[in-house]
Design a protein that fits this description.
Length: 344
């Protein structure tokens, strides 16, 4: 039986803060640091309109730089908290804590092993990030549980009610020796979930996460799923994403009903130095009272924002320019981790 004293909240539940790490010259952003900082400033300005923002910085020099940038952009610095810790990169969706709610201490910081997306990149400092944040006192008296099994936060979606959505392509790459049944059991146990829903199809060219679910399909309130579609029959993604759409249509809620599906428009291909970049509108971030939606300077931006707003009624929609982010193969959701209300 699942232990229901703990559960993984849905992203649309109340939050205390959003956690990010600021890019600097010793990260992979060095070559285009000024450009990507414009996205981080826009993100910080948007988040702090609605709630607090915790920024991990590498040192005191970076802290002063960040606070100066944000003050110059009119950001309310009283909504900021900077924590100094070492990190390899800034994808905190994958190296940050997966927070379960409940239990004797109110929260459990579930700290899965982070391997740099299956050993593609060095990740020793990022793998120690959750422990460092705990030691710094960011999370009060929340319990900290280390699980020696590779999983990234971008690889799972929770509806807050015991259902987890994930992709086979990602997790079989991380754990080729394990069966789907074995992995489902580990996910149910580690995340205190009732069931795991798997997608076999769906990917984005240029995505080095091996098809994280948060680039493809997202749970939304009232049994909705928002997903990245492709209506261009000449695009190499078309067949794969059509098959994924079919899988989503076949999924059923706990009480046996189909999900309410919201397909997102397909942006034009973005090519950089001969390489196609992974632009996904599904990679949005929910905060208190709003949804922050990636914008790629594309004609489809407005329609994507409208559809995401329809799937999250009652929330303000704020577009954040994310074209600089996809140079490193991620977007808005990938660089953030929400923290449930009461945790920080």
């Amino acid at each position: 039986m699942t232990d229901h004293s703990l559960r993984l909240p849905a992203e649309w539940e109340p939050q205390s803060a959003v956690l990010i790490a600021w890019p600097h010259a010793d990260t992979d952003w060095a070559e285009r640091l000024a450009s990507v900082e414009t996205t981080y400033v826009a993100l910080a300005a948007a988040v702090t309109r609605f709630q607090s923002l915790i920024i991990v910085v590498a040192d005191e020099v970076l802290r002063v730089h960040v606070e100066g940038l944000l003050a110059g952009a009119g950001v309310d610095l009283s909504k900021l908290r900077c924590i100094t810790l070492p990190y390899d990169d800034t994808w905190l969706r994958d190296s940050g804590p997966i927070t379960l709610k409940g239990g004797a201490r109110g929260f459990q910081l579930t700290d899965f092993r982070f391997t740099g997306w299956g050993g593609k990149f060095g990740a020793e400092q990022d793998d120690a990030l959750v422990a460092g944040l705990v030691e710094a006192g960011v999370f009060g008296h929340a319990a900290h549980k280390r699980i020696d099994w590779a999983l990234e936060g971008g690889g799972i979606e929770s509806d807050g009610s015991g259902s987890i959505l994930t992709t086979w392509r990602c997790l079989v790459q991380r754990h080729p020796e394990q069966s789907r049944e074995e992995m489902s059991a580990i996910l149910r146990d580690g995340l205190h979930a009732d069931r795991v829903l798997w997608l076999d199809y769906g990917y984005l060219e240029g995505d080095d996460t091996d098809a994280h679910i948060d680039t493809l399909a997202r749970f939304a309130p009232d049994d909705r799923i928002v997903f990245q579609a492709c209506d261009d029959a000449g695009d190499p993604h078309h067949e794969e994403l059509q098959r994924m759409a079919g899988e989503l249509a076949a999924l059923r809620t706990v009480d046996g009903r189909p999900y309410r599906l919201h397909p997102l428009p397909w942006p034009r291909p973005i090519i950089d130095e001969g390489r196609r970049l992974a632009a996904s509108y599904a990679n949005y971030l929910i905060v208190n009272g709003a949804v922050l939606v990636p914008a790629y300077d594309d004609p489809a931006d407005a329609e994507a924002a409208r559809i995401i707003g329809a799937a999250h009624p009652g929330r303000e929609i704020v577009q954040v320019p994310c074209r600089p982010l996809i140079w490193q193969n991620g977007s808005l959701h990938c660089i953030t981790m929400q923290l449930p209300a009461g945790l920080a």
